[in-house]
Amino acid sequence: MTKHKSTAWKLGAAALLSAGLAGSAFAADKPLAGVTLTLASQNDQFAAVIAKLAPQFEEKTGATVKVDILDYGSLLTKTQADFVGHTKSYDLVTMDIVWAGQYAENKYTVDLTDWIKRDAAELQLDDIYPATIKYIGQYDGKQVAFPFAGYAAVMAYRKDLLDAAGIKVPETAEDFVAAAIKLTDPSKKIYGFVANGQKGAAVAQDWLQYNAQLGGSVLDASGKPALNSDANVASLKVYKELFDKAAPPGAVDYDWGGREESFRQGLVAMMETWSVGAPGYYDPSMSKVVDSVGISFTPVGKGLPVKYGLGGWGMGINADIDPAKQEAAWQFIKWLTSAPVQKEFNMLGAGSYIRKSTLADPDLNAKYPFLPIIAKSFENADGDYRPRIPQYPEIQDLLGTAVNNVLVGGTDPKAALDEAQKQAEKLF
Amino acid sequence: MAASPASIRQRRSGLRFTDRRKLFLFCLAVPAVIYVIVVALYPLAQGILYSFYDYNLLRRGGRMVFVGLDNYVELLTDATGQRALINTFAFTFGAVFFEFIFGLGLAMLLWRDGRFNRIALAFLLIPVTITPLVVGLIFRALLAVDYGYIGYYLAEWGITSPRGLFAGTTTALPTLIFIDIWEWTPLVALILLAGLKSLPGDILEAASADGATAWQRFRLVILPLLLPTVFLALVLRMMDAFRVFDSIFVTTGGGPADATNSLMVYGVKQGLQFFNIGYASAIGNVTILCIAFIAAVFALLIRRADVRANET
Predict the structure, then answer these.
(1) Which of A276, A281, B176, B289 has a CA that sits 20 to 30 A from residue A103's CA?
(2) What are the residue ranges of helices labelled H in A71-199?
(3) Three-class DSSP category at A380
(4) CA A198, A183, A186: angle at the middle one, nearest 5?
(5) pLDDT at residue B3 in the model
(6) Of A104-118, A179-193, B52-66, which range is least confident?
(7) Which of B160, B163, B260 is the best substitution to test chain A (most A C-beta atoms within 10 A)?
(8) 3-class secondary-structure state, position A190
(9) Nearest Cα to Cα of residue B163 among A186, A191, A255, A251
(10) Residue B146 clears pLDDT 80, i.e. is over it
(11) Where are any strands of DSSP class E within chain B?
(12) Do B169 and A410 touch (CB under 8 A)?
């Protein structure tokens, strides 16, 4: 009996020691085990890729990442309601470049400035395009989001149509307009140009792009709204001319889906778009222009400074959640934006770039021949042509109504922008 | 001392019974009253309060600044607000008018009992069972000029603008009215049919025996007797039509420009997109006031029609 008891105790002690060691090893391997991060993600190309890669982060850290994919309007409304109500539904939020002002003013997300300094070596900041850090997430001295998806405004075109017409790739906005009109042949259902015409965010964002290329600006030098400046009125006339003479009839009601689809289906000769959609043009399962598509810079007006539109998304950390979870969310951001993950991210079609090494990667360049265009665009980037101020959503809405009104023939450019200006002034 | 113990006991028992009955009924009513207060009256009062403040959750840290009637003045003087009001009235009266005419016609046709009529009624009720949001999506797809089964051919044959019905400032609202008529006419027909079936048969037979023509029977007998049901159908449809949102949201988003912007579309944008709570509350309150006003006018008109019918 005595011997038996002694043996039992020894076995018990050994078991406890083993369990203790195992637990310690487990803790060291999976520092974030048990943590679930909920991410509110825009339904751009990167969303599905993040959802696909998330298990890798879980394998590495133990944290589960739940990706809630939302359309633009729902994402904005849901996340704002979450912030305003302090309901902590989301830990991470994909933040549109233009929301930075609102996020900073209302302190929705954690200011990442100090964390970036602390982890600078790990982040390899030198490898990240300064424009993406500056514009995507930096406002009024605060870094309210970290860039993970940089987009360049680019021009997509059908080489075959331009070649057949003897037209070289437009290098100025004036050439672009002339080429678009010349390339239009409604009898063959071929149109020289397509852009968003739908009332709201769609038409506003597209017009703002063309407006910037033609020398227009939404704010004056002092930061006050100047929606009805002469340059803006002139560019809106050009935009309307393009819709009347060079766009598919249904374009006045297109949003990004309609615009991209009409180009991918080969109805359109030239289109300005975010680079994120470009991988889709080379995908035979959804594109009819795989062999004829070309990507180039967005042409600016003759004599104007050469700047290219920068857009995209940063990842913000909800300021309401507890510090431990914030740290876990930051781990996710560092992982997602690391060089190896960024490469895999984009090999899977995310179309989202922030790193020089990613854009220079030979495998990615073999797959997507337009990467040098993005690289040069990021080096001459303008991320403020859509002003990243707290009032931007309202201004976008005003322009969305005004520009759409002009496109459908309801009013003339100056009257429309005068009305929008009057409303915009109330916001300041 | 004069009162006997039995008498005293009886009196107490009687009082207790009455009190217990009142208490019981009170307890039965309390949950319902609390529910109405919490779910309906409190939010309504809160909305009324907010409408007198400049209250934006995204500005000034969400602080409320009293502005009196400024929000209402803004709504009534702002071009967008005026357009929303006009559109909502136009949509409501346009849709309800035709729903009533067609609904009454359908009800008259379906009045006679029979297998065909019962089957037809069942099929007619299908649109009513589809949520307005889905109906909007269905018509958006059908009427699209690029790929819609109807829209493509209408544009191809030159019947409609190449840009589509929803992209025309003069065609978008009528198209939405048409969609509403398509969906809700059967409901009006159903309500009116119920009213018709409840009409006393002997009066109709008497009128027929007296040599009244079909038109005379309709105008002098059927319609007057049907007035309460007509009122019910009109008010129910009007209340819903005035708060139109789903079908507009998914088809036009209030566009093109502000051609189909309704009070509810405008209010939802201000309240849930820009978090401009004060202004959105004012829009909501104006919507309720308009509905109450129109219902009151309907009531007066129906009553006047009833009086006139009785005088005849």
Answers:
(1) A276
(2) 72-85, 100-106, 113-118, 120-123, 130-135, 159-164, 173-183
(3) coil
(4) 65
(5) 53
(6) B52-66
(7) B163
(8) strand
(9) A251
(10) yes
(11) 53-55, 64-66
(12) yes
- For A364, the enclosing helix (H) or strand (E) is helix A362-367
Residue A412: alpha-carbon gap to chain centroid:
32
Decide if B279 contacts B60 (C-beta within 8 A). Answer: no
According to DSSP, the residues that pair with A155 across neighbouring strands are A272, A296
Which residue, among A384, A381, A377, has the nearest Cα to A216 in the 3D structure? A384
Read off the pLDDT of residues A357-369 as tens digits, 9 standing for 90 and up. 999 999 999 999 9
The Cα–Cα gap between A42 and B243 comes to 30
Confidence category of residue A112, pLDDT binned at 50, 70, 90? very high
Q: How many CB pairs under 8 A join A and B?
A: 83
pLDDT band at A214 (very low <50, low <70, confident <90, very high): very high
Contact check, Cβ <8 Å, B275/A84: yes
Answer yes or no: are the C-beta atoms of A110 and A316 closer than 8 Å.
yes
The encoded tokens of residue B214 equal 């079909």
List the structure tokens of A108. 């929705």
Is residue A249 a contact partner of residue B155, using CB atoms and an 8 Å limit? yes
User: What is the predicted pLDDT for the residue at A62?
Assistant: 94
Cβ under 8 Å to B: A residues 364-423 = 390, 393-394, 397, 401, 404-405, 407-411, 419, 423
B254 and A80 within 8 Å at the Cβ level: the answer is: no
What is the distance in angstroms between the Cα of A358 and the nearest Cα belonging to chain B?
Answer: 36
Indicate if the pLDDT at residue A309 is higher than 80: yes
A65-69, A150-154, B16-20, range with the lowest pLDDT: B16-20
Q: Does residue A23 surpass a pLDDT of 70? A: no
Number of neighbours of residue A150 by Cβ within 10 angstroms:
33
pLDDT at B255 over 70: yes
Dihedral sign of CA atoms A389, A390, A391, A392 in order: positive
pLDDT of residue A418: 96
Q: Which residues of B touch A408 (CB under 8 A)?
A: 163, 167-169, 256-257
User: Strand A293-297 and strand A146-158: pairing?
Assistant: antiparallel
DSSP state of A354: -
pLDDT in the model for residue A279: 87
SS3 call for A155 = strand
